[in-house]
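Action item from last week, closing it out:
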Amino acid sequence: MSLDKETTEYAAKTPRSRALHEEAAAVMPGGNSRTTTFFDPYPFYFQRGQGAHVWDADGIERVDFNNNYTSLVIGHAVPDVVKAVQAVAESGLSFPGPTEHEIRLAEMIVRRVPSVESLRFTNSGTEATMNAVRLARAFTNRAKIAKFEGAFHGTHDWVMVSVTGDTKSWGNRRRPKPIAWSAGIPAAVLKNVVVLPWNDPEACEEILTAEAGNLAALIVDPYLCNGGLVPPADGFMKRLRESTERHGILLIMDEVISFRTAWGGGQERLGVRPDLTTFGKVIGGGLPVGAFGGRRDVMAFYDPRKGGARISQGGTFNANPVTMAAGVATLNALTPEAYTRLDALGDRLRGGVRRLFANTRRRGQVTGVGSLFWLHWTAEMLTDYRSTRPKDAEMPQRVFMGMLNEGILMTQRGLGACSLAMSDEDVDRFVNALARVLARQ
């Protein structure tokens, strides 16, 4: 089935969402506030979610493998989280000062992640990485930062570089050029961002050595979660840690997504101790959240005691009690046994997809770790972001729309995530739906 036919079927099923989108477009550019959630002809409107399932404005039920872009690791409207939120909300939604709830969530994160000796909360992962980058510059008194090609770290200027797009203009694979990901990125930003090639330790070492005197930090998503979920080669992350330590470059590990993969996040799985870590998504239990933390001596730049902080950080809703309580309830549910179950669900899904590809001789691959997965439509060996580019550029969208019509929600790019609310039957439903979609292609 063509994309046009899948889209026509979708539109026929969702007239109420179409009407809501038309209303929204009259008052918001494009009809929404999240560019990533838009797709042609219009996104469907959510009415409710429960466990592993969501329902749209037309009453259509779907199994949710998007989970608000990996945030809802234990599922929708989990009773313990709802009760925690309700209990706090009854006493007040926000205050011009701290509450005990932020202490409890901070304690939980510090216990789980040994590299995080102290931390501060924000309202998004974008704010978390923004503060971590600023902190690294202040601590090292250096101006530049390094990031990886294809890595997403939020939507502030300093990380909106070489994220996605046509790689033909990105320069040599081993010496990538910094490319603005958005209009409005000043040229000065590109001069101060060094782009590295994923899974090429020798090239990374050469670049880091050449730029060492100017580099404040290297920010890295340990699994390139938004760049194709291409795992790091054996020893790659440890070599980065050795190189950054040797050159006095702070290593910032962006665990906004990868924290859902283990009790102590990606750094626990990979055995790497960064200087700073950023968090978001899962630690808020479904509410807006971010956090950044790490070495106590580095984080001391934000300490307002004894004469004032060297860096000011504000935010009217930072560490608001409702979010903090939801985060505590969520992390309480994420026991070691829960991670074992999430790993099993992810393994079952990836195994089912691999068998499907093999049995149908489909030119496709699936990557992932823990509860995360990514569908790829190329036979090329997956080593970095460039290698993940599909040969048929329309294929990810055809599959996305086809899966919607089969009652499955994931992301348009191919990223998906299992939640603790899912059953083996939900995972099998995904694989069977994908088989039907591919049979129509």
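Closing note: The mean pLDDT is 95.
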